[in-house]
Each structure stands twice: as structure tokens, then as C-alpha cells.
Design brief:
It contains no helices and 10 strands. With about 110 residues, the chain is mainly β.
Length: about 110
């Protein structure tokens, strides 16, 4: 069974930064597309950023220029660097293998003063 383990969430003040990590196991990571999603209370889960195995990236409009998705195939890890965080970025963040059923357990990001 594919496993994804996220880390790096926490409480940060507006304007601050966090880096999320997602370690993936039991899959050939280097040929796998990955995505970061988020779900805020009372809202639908949305795609924040995606990266293909060719390192092509795409972003939700509201995070463009602030968030950066990257990957380290040697470590089977995908990252989400989040800068200039805003209160509206508060959500549980999940990583996912492509468009599959394989999701991480989620990590809470709270942006508040």
C-alpha cells in the first residue's frame, strides 16, 4: 500500500513562512506526479499546487508568487514552500499521488496573529 506522510505544519503569523514535506513510500516516486491540496473548515478541498515527474508545475491563482512546489526524487519527497502567508491560507494541507486515491493524513496550517 502506498504511504504518504506529511510534516511541517504549524501556527505562523501573517507574512510568515512554512515548508511542508511529504515523504512517499512503496511507489516509484520518480515517475509519479504529485499534488498539494488544502481544505479549510466548511469549504471543499482544492488543489494548491501540482508537479509532474518532469517537474512541470501549476498553482492555484491565489498562491501564485507565494508558494513553490518542488520535489527530491532521491528522497521520494515533495515540498511546498509557503511564503507571505495570509489568514485565508489556514487549512489542513494534504499531499496526494497524482489523481489517485492515495492521500496523506494531512497537516494543519494556521495563519493568525
Amino acid at each position: 500500500q502506498v504511504q504518504l506522510v506529511e510534516s511541517g505544519g504549524g501556527l505562523v503569523q501573517p507574512g510568515g513562512s512554512l515548508r511542508l514535506s511529504c515523504v512517499v513510500s512503496r511507489i516509484i516516486f520518480s515517475i509519479t506526479d504529485m499534488g498539494w491540496y488544502r481544505q479549510a473548515p466548511g469549504k471543499q478541498r482544492e488543489l494548491v499546487a501540482g508537479i509532474t515527474h518532469h517537474r512541470e508545475t501549476n498553482y492555484l491563482n491565489s498562491v501564485k508568487g507565494r508558494f513553490t512546489i518542488s520535489r527530491d526524487d532521491a528522497k521520494s519527497t515533495v515540498y511546498l514552500q509557503m511564503n507571505s502567508l495570509k489568514p485565508e491560507d489556514t487549512a489542513v494541507y494534504y499531499c496526494r499521488v497524482g489523481s489517485t486515491k492515495f492521500w496523506g493524513q494531512g497537516t494543519q496550517v494556521t495563519v493568525s496573529s
